[in-house]
Design a protein that fits this description.
711 residues; alpha+beta; Methylamine Dehydrogenase, Chain H; Helix Hairpins; 4-stranded antiparallel β-sheet; 8 helices; 28 strands; 42% helix
């Protein structure tokens, strides 16, 4: 649990278990006894007035003296024994039990009275070491895309510069900005696993929520329009569209509670939007140039923003009040990123440095001269390690203690524009201005693959696979023929050796018989025959090793050729699996589009039905109004006939009847118009209802076909 949420839970427990400590009942009597001699409306030493609740919270000329939940505030520090400037400076010091009372007041949320509500903590407690458990991931499996669109809505001949990449904090997923789309890739296989269309323009900024379930995308059309869209990573659904601008959104983030979205861009205004209403709730005019980076802390308490002039500010996200001004950078800010625990902020700049700031006092913890010429990209890993890239065409990995780990790459072929570390910290990704993302192992900086930001269509993928399969099958056929030839050669060698061994056996039998005859007869002829037989045996023996060697060589060649065939056949399995995958993806893409069209048709049909109901209601109202006017005319005309009036009154009555006739005409015309609208709407419903049902049925059929294609 994040530290501030833990504090809030503790405060809630204390509030229910103990008596509330309030300003009116406990804090004020202590101030009255010890502090009001110097800190009252007439004598506000140091600009501090402790005689009222509002004055105590406002603080003095040196800033606030108390913060909800922060017992390390200036007030407690000044009252503690041994303080550098102890308070009160003279007289009796506060006892420990009274200091504890004030601590409880602070821990309890700075209550004014017993009916007050506790204030939320706004200041984070700084730790230079990352103490939160990076392995404490949200419950359940990490969110991954399921059956998302894989057909790119925009296809280009070449990739464009990549504005942003970001790795999911918990899942093996990398989001990449493309042209009118965001690409989702698996960080291990590097395969495309989903596409999020962004028809509003080019996506410029990306940010995951801390639970990794949602991705907010900011972008638009330069100089014309901008917006943010928040997607559900699992389903690809567009959940929120907030922050409509007149220029592209360059930086955006959404708070974990899903209540606010922060945006920045060329307007130089930091804007905070209400997600429920879509209304702009804060517009902060502080930056002097385009806002190029912003980030909400993981706990949602703070918001950091940086601009093209090197300015960096930290704000309270709840109120929009300025929290810290961070001075030091001399050129454009390229990144403002909170560490996982929200206690440390990193800012990267074109001045070549990365600076780290603690959030209690806004002091600089560390400055790194990372890349001469400028730092173009920065990203934290979940364990506090980080990766940078710069105009020196290098990307570097750094340890959580700010020391360098290793260079990931040198002499990049294009300017690096974005970096990311995967959820496990095992791979680093470096994107460039030519639209290529390179993946490196963090343990040894080995390049393991590349991703292009302009994926081909599914049809072109299938055509390429079919061509590759054809080529592979030809290679397999050639390898099979070669294996058959080598097998024949081996069989021939095996047959040759068998024949040699058979000849040797026959020669040996002949030699033994000749030798026996020579020993019996001892004739010169018999002895010669035996010698000749022995010579034939010896000649055959000399040929046997060669035949065996030839067979061994042939068998080795067959084994090698068989292994080569297996190697040639292996890719075919993956290729056929890829054909199956992309064939199913094509069906799914059509199903998604059809489902979208079916949904739009259903919405249009529902609107038509509502219009029909409304128009039908209008007919009833128009008919009642028409009948009322006709009844009024008949009543007036009847009275006129029954008792004829004087000529003066008659003229007036005739004018009245004429006016009523005009009104009746208008009502009749309005009634006919309503009847025409009902008829038109009815025709529209009769025509569109079957189409809507047919599209829904087609979408269901395609979905079933997709499931079957995956089997």
């Amino acid at each position: 649990m994040p530290r501030r949420l833990l504090i809030l839970a503790t405060l809630s427990t204390l509030a229910s278990a103990e008596e509330k400590v309030t300003y009116d009942d406990q804090a004020f009597p202590i101030f009255q006894q010890t502090c009001l001699n110097c800190h009252n409306p007439d004598k506000t030493k140091g600009g501090l007035d402790l005689s009222t609740f509002a004055g105590a919270l406002k603080g003095g000329s040196g800033g606030k003296i108390v913060e909800p939940g922060d017992t390390g505030s200036r007030l407690i520090g000044a009252l503690m024994p041994g303080a550098e400037k102890p308070m009160p400076p003279e007289g009796e010091k506060l006892t420990g039990d009274k200091i504890d009372v004030l601590k409880h007041w602070i821990e309890g949320g700075l209550l004014e009275n017993k009916s007050s509500s506790a204030r939320k903590p706004s200041k984070p407690k700084f730790e230079t070491t990352l103490r939160s458990d990076p392995a404490a991931k949200p419950d359940g499996p990490p969110p991954m895309p399921i059956d998302l669109l894989l057909e790119p809505p925009v296809v280009t001949s070449r990739a464009s510069s990549i504005h942003a990449i970001i790795a999911s904090p918990w899942a093996p997923l990398l989001a990449v900005t493309g042209q009118h789309q965001v690409l989702l890739h698996h960080t291990e296989s590097l395969e495309l696993v989903g596409i999020l269309p962004f028809p509003e323009g080019d996506p410029i900024s990306l940010a995951f929520t801390p639970d990794a379930r949602y991705l907010i995308v900011g972008g638009g059309v330069q100089g014309k329009s901008g917006v943010t869209v928040t997607f559900d990573i699992t389903t690809g659904a567009r959940l929120l569209t907030v922050g409509k601008e007149f220029d592209s959104v360059l930086a955006a983030d959404i708070r974990l509670g899903f209540d606010i979205v922060a945006t920045g861009g060329p307007s130089r205004l930091l804007k905070i939007w209400n997600t429920e209403t879509g209304d702009l709730v804060k517009s902060i005019k502080k930056h002097t140039d385009w806002i190029t980076a912003l980030d909400l802390s993981g706990d949602g308490v703070l918001l950091a923003s940086g601009d093209r002039n090197g300015g960096v500010w930290v704000w309270e996200s709840e109120t929009g009040n300025e929290y810290q001004t961070l001075r030091g950078h001399q050129a454009a800010i390229t990144a403002t990123v909170f560490r996982n625990d929200s206690n440390l902020l990193a800012t990267a700049s074109e001045d070549g440095t990365v600076r780290f700031w603690e959030m209690n006092g806004g002091s600089e913890v560390k400055k790194i001269d990372a890349h001469p010429g400028g730092v173009t990209a920065f990203a934290f890993g979940r364990d506090g390690s980080f990766v940078t890239a710069g105009r020196d065409m290098k990307a570097k990995l750094w340890k959580p203690d700010f020391n360098p780990a290793r260079d990931l790459v040198q002499n990049l072929p294009a300017l690096p524009t974005a970096v990311a570390l995967d959820s496990e910290g095992k791979r680093a990704f470096v994107a460039d201005s030519l639209g290529t993302i390179r993946a490196f192992q963090t343990e040894d900086a080995k390049l393991v693959g590349e991703i292009q930001s302009n994926p081909p269509t599914i049809q072109s993928r299938l055509e390429t696979l079919v061509s590759q399969i054809s080529t592979q099958q030809q290679s397999i056929a050639a390898a099979e023929k070669q294996l058959a030839d080598k097998t024949s050669a081996r069989d021939a060698a095996r047959q040759g050796l068998s024949e040699v061994e058979k000849s040797r056996q026959q020669a040996d039998e002949i030699q033994k018989a000749a030798q026996a005859g020579a020993e019996q007869t001892k004739s010169e002829g018999a002895v010669k025959i035996a010698a000749d037989a022995m010579a034939r045996v010896q000649a055959i023996d000399q040929g046997i090793p060669g035949a065996k060697s030839a067979l061994e060589a042939a068998e080795k060649t067959v084994a090698e050729t068989a292994a080569a065939l297996a190697t040639t056949q292996a890719p075919l399995v993956a290729m056929n699996a890829a054909v199956k995958h992309w064939t199913a993806a094509a069906i799914n893409s059509k199903a998604i589009v059809t489902r979208h069209n079916a949904t739009e048709s259903a919405v249009a049909l529902e609107d038509s039905q509502l219009n029909f109901t409304k128009s039908a209601g209008q007919i009833s109202l128009r008919a009642d109004a028409l009948n009322s006017k006709r009844a009024e005319r008949e009543q007036l005309a009847s009275r006129f006939k029954q008792s004829p009036p004087s000529p003066e009154i008659a003229a007036e009555l005739e004018a009245t009847l004429a006016a009523i006739d005009i009104s009746i005409g208008r009502e009749l015309e309005a009634l006919q118009q309503s009847e025409n609208e009902v008829a038109t709407t009815r025709d529209t419903i009769e025509q569109s209802a079957p189409l809507a049902f047919a599209k829904t049925a087609e979408a269901d059929s395609l979905r079933a076909a997709y499931r079957k294609a995956l089997e």
